Amino acid sequence: MSNQVRVRFAPSPTGYLHVGGARTALFNWLYAGNQGGKFILRIEDTDEARNTPEAMAAILDGLRWLGLDWDEGPEVGGDRGPYYQSQRKGIYDAYLAQLEAADRVYTEENGAVRFKFSREPITIPDLVCGDVALAGTEEPDMTLRRPDGSYIFHFVNVVDDIEMGITHVIRGEDHLSNTWKHIDLFHAFGKTPPVYAHIPLILNPDGTKMSKRDQGASVVSYMDAGYLPQAVFNYLCMLGWTPKAETEKLSAREMATLFDPKQIHSANARFDEKKAVWFNAQYLRELPQDELYALARPFLVKEGFSIQNEDMAARAVYSVREKISLLGELKGWTHYFFNEDYPYEAEVVTKLNAKTENKALLQAAAETFASMNQWDETSLHDALEKTAAAQSVKAGALMPLLRFALTGQNRGPGVTTILDLVGKDSSLRRIERTLQTV
RNA sequence: GACCCCUUCGUCUAGCGGUUAGGACACAUCCCUUUCACGGAUGCGACACGGGUUCGAUUCCCGUAGGGGUCGCCA
Predict the structure, then answer these.
(1) Domain that holds residue A331
(2) Strand B nucleotides within 7 Å of a protein CB
(3) Whole-prediction pTM value?
(4) How many CB atoms lie within 10 A of CB A332?
(5) In this structure, is residue A230 part of a structural domain?
């Protein structure tokens, strides 16, 4: 038996992957990476009534999206399987027999089997909370097996941790209060309990408990909003853990190198969407054009944009990469690239009509464009400078007007970039429509 | 009700008896700038409260308050 670190994430497939669960998985994964150990995925599906294949898939998808690959588990295998508790009944029966032989269980009239607590004081050694000393319990003996023969969480959890050679249990603090029961079971089996690290919970921004219904509780909601997995990964890790590093923006690999469960803060943490968004913006703007576009394209399609030219679309998205923080914000920044019938924002209409000479300026620019043979940013820039000079205004006065005309908005990429991307014909049509309608 | 965990700027946190209590996000102002952003600079802003221990408490101990959790034939 080696002394290699073995950690596990043991979700129950009763719903989607919760951010709290994701963070637990993240910390386990980091610790395995840090220690050169194994990260094991075990599915705790003993409650047949509540488990669904959809939930199962959602959890695996969520973990994969975050980049949390497991060394042993579903679809990967391993020599300590099966990794579904629903397939391990024989193992549990054998372990229960051990307890029967040791006279640590008794069967009730209806067939339920209960474990006789030792009722000795128990100390939980915890990497995050420190030693937690408990007096001997006065709780009723706990049920291990239901009358129908199925087993209860505490029992299968301990049996599997023994069988799978789990050395460290990193899990949510909601399990801390039950851990003495697990330790009692380990002792009853004559085993040494694993090292525990109970991590604090994630709370809503208002400090209340984050439950299934709350905003941002599901990992899927981050995918839908246009978060990048590396940003969610990074942010979730910084919730309760601050590495000794110059920056908080770290790759999964860097975090694994630095990770130490003893450094996890022991207080619950509130979810801060602003900071999560900030992380996302950081990762977003460092993506090369093709990678960004690959991720962004589904969002454009979802908005119903008609993409005529993939290269132009990719460049359009790339041109606003520093303006957005989430891919879901793409719509408001790129719709006019894909549709010439864009609306004119009220502020734009007001500004265009503020001065009578504005339309004359636009007309002059249109005439210049119409006469151009070269259509690239440099030529466009020169042409605009000359047009402005000819009209006795600064380029700074002409640019905003063109932006209004070309996009209907007062924000966006550089005007020459827009002109270049939409092309000469479309640029002229856009200006003409503006002159006619506004 | 019993037991357990927790408490530093608005938020995430550093701190492990002596610090001008540091950083990040957010916010504000300024700079840059054809817009919006990015970026840069500066600023605002915290040790829950009350007792101890100590020459000296954010730091150690006790209590109070507040928050969270557990006490299932759920996981």
Answers:
(1) 289-337
(2) 3-8, 10-14, 22-26, 34-39, 67-75
(3) 0.94
(4) 15
(5) no
